[in-house]
Design brief:
The protein contains three helices and no strands. The radius of gyration is 26 Å and the shape is rod-shaped. By secondary structure, it is mainly α. It has one domain.
Length: about 120
């Protein structure tokens, strides 16, 4: 039975620098987000817009189904597919808009705190 009595640590200097830079990144990121609450609002806006568009899609599709008054699955699929596609792209646009807004607020707060290189 082999028994190890001594543990040898082998680390290169890159690991230490990476740890320090990650720590600095997270500390700066936390400081930036705490100073600019509009970053939170942009994320909340994106989530709320997607939820509102999802509910609107459900209501809209339900109205179309009631108007068509048919049991034919092919007719229903042909009527619903364009609506679902439009709502999908609307949700994608809302997420992109929210990401763009939060990024702009993040960069603005970073400049105000003079954390840019």
């Amino acid at each position: 039975m082999l028994r190890c009595t001594k543990v040898i640590k082998t680390t290169d200097s890159g690991g230490f620098l990476l740890d320090m830079s990650m720590k600095a990144f997270f500390l700066n990121f936390t400081r930036i987000v705490e100073t600019n609450p509009r970053i939170y609002w942009s994320i909340i806006f994106g989530l709320a817009a997607c939820l509102a568009l999802f509910v609107a899609e459900i209501v809209h599709i339900q109205l179309v189904i009631n108007e068509l008054n048919t049991k034919d699955q092919n007719v229903l699929a042909e009527a619903i597919l364009p609506l679902a596609t439009k709502y999908k792209w609307s949700r994608i646009f809302a997420i992109i808009l929210a990401l763009f807004w939060s990024n702009m607020e993040y960069l603005k707060a970073k400049r105000q705190l003079r954390l840019t290189r």
